[in-house]
Amino acid sequence: MRVAVIRAWPGRFESVEVEVPNGATVSDALKAAAMDGDPACTGVAIYGERADPDTALRDGDRVELLRPLQADPKDARRRRAQDRARR
After folding, report:
1. Tens digit of pLDDT for each residue in 35-85?
2. Assessment of whether the complete model's pTM goes beyond 0.85
3. How far apart are the C-alpha atoms of 22 and 57, rounded to whole Å?
4. What is the distance between the alpha carbons of residues 10 and 2, in angstroms, rounded to a whole number?
5. In the chain, N or C terminus with fewer CB closer than 10 Å?
6. How much of the chain is helix, strand and coil, in % rounded to 5?
7. Fold designation for 2-86
């Protein structure tokens, strides 16, 4: 089966499609894509839903490497609302 492994940074991304055997896990896909040792990765997701390294994959899944947030979304929203109020 084929799965895509995605790693993204601000303004760019890397996508690798790999062939893994039936019953493969997220960890297997990361190894096949040579993305299993990324120190910036804080977790993984499948189509945006948090997953564990031992989560089983299905054909066509998109495995996403997650990075830490650069800003708290609540704080960013609050700052935008304050900026709009000042205008």
Report:
1. 988 787 889 999 999 999 999 999 999 999 998 877 777 887 888 888 888
2. no
3. 8
4. 26
5. C
6. 25, 35, 40
7. Ubiquitin-like (UB roll) (3.10.20)
